[in-house]
Amino acid sequence: WAKADGKSRWALYDPERNAREVARFTLSATMPAALERGEFFVDYQPLVRLDDSTIAGVEALVRWQHPEFGRLAPDRFIALAEETGLIVPLGRWVLRAACQQARAWLDAFGECAPFVSVNLAVRQSRDPGLVADVRRILDETGLPATHLQLELTESAIMDTADEPLEALRALSEMGVRIAIDDFGTGYSNLAYLRHLPVHELKMAGSFMEGLRAAEGADPVDAQIVATLVSLAHALGLTVTAEGVETAAQAERLRRIGCDSAQGWFFARPGSPADIERLLAR
Ligand code: C2E
Ligand code: MG
Ligand code: MG
Ligand code: MG
Fold this sequence. Notes:
Elements: H1 15-37, E1 40-49, E2 55-66, E3 70-72, H2 78-84, H3 87-109, E4 115-119, H4 122-125, H5 130-141, E5 148-153, H6 154-158, H7 162-174, E6 177-183, H8 190-193, E7 200-203, H9 219-234, E8 238-241, H10 247-256, E9 260-261, H11 272-280
Parallel strand pairs: 2-4, 4-5, 5-6, 6-7, 7-8, 8-9
Antiparallel strand pairs: 1-2, 1-9, 2-3
Helix pairs in contact: 3-5, 5-7
Organism: Gandjariella thermophila
Domain EAL: 24-281
Protein name: GGDEF domain-containing protein
């Protein structure tokens, strides 16, 4: 990089940047062994139905319990794993862990057990082995396909060439639900949406900002949220609002007709035991 920045920068040493680069390199180089050693684990966060407050699903969120740096959030390592390609085996591991967990909840709680919603990185959605991996993991864990949802970002779905789209169709035909994650933050071809094998929109947390305060809501934000919800419903999709942090937001979303919501107001991401305590209520 120094070269590209021109000769005058050669002499500059940026210790912070250097430390960041070293940390990135270390994390990325040690990730495969960490996966082998079982340093990754999954937290779960409920998706709560707004009409009756029951738990419709839970999102699986991966964490890395690093022996030196402590617990790392996914924004520290998912992009690195995408760069190196490790996201494919890591993502497969998350999928298996989540399906095993969802199967255990199905045994313990029966029909009111939540579906599990697993994030798919762009690189995973383009992986030719995706459909076979999902099918095998469902078989081996005994989880019905209808209890699995896969979350893809708008860009993963919209820029998709024919083959990944075929994969999503195949998954959808198996009964797996497909959700668009962080909807509204990227570029979406709304007209195209109706031709996609998608079941749910997850509305990005940024839309919740204007609905936050107890007194008064930002009328434009409220209108955008209401419009997204009715668009989704017109397309036959369900809507989950992300990043719901206050009672006022939850109540406004319920009145707008949003199906479910996820956020700190209901529950932070937690262990399977935390989820079981909520399910038992
Ligand atoms: P995401 O899929 O949009 O997940 C929601 C994120 O919002 C989670 O962050 C969650 O902890 C956080 N969140 C939940 N409720 C609230 C709230 O009320 N307020 C705020 N401010 N945040 C809230 P987390 O766990 O750090 O995950 C970040 C991102 O990392 C996820 O965003 C997802 O894109 C990615 N990710 C997580 N697990 C996986 C995985 O297994 N595979 C892949 N490919 N990506 C993953
Ligand atoms: Mg997600
Ligand atoms: Mg999201
Ligand atoms: Mg996100």
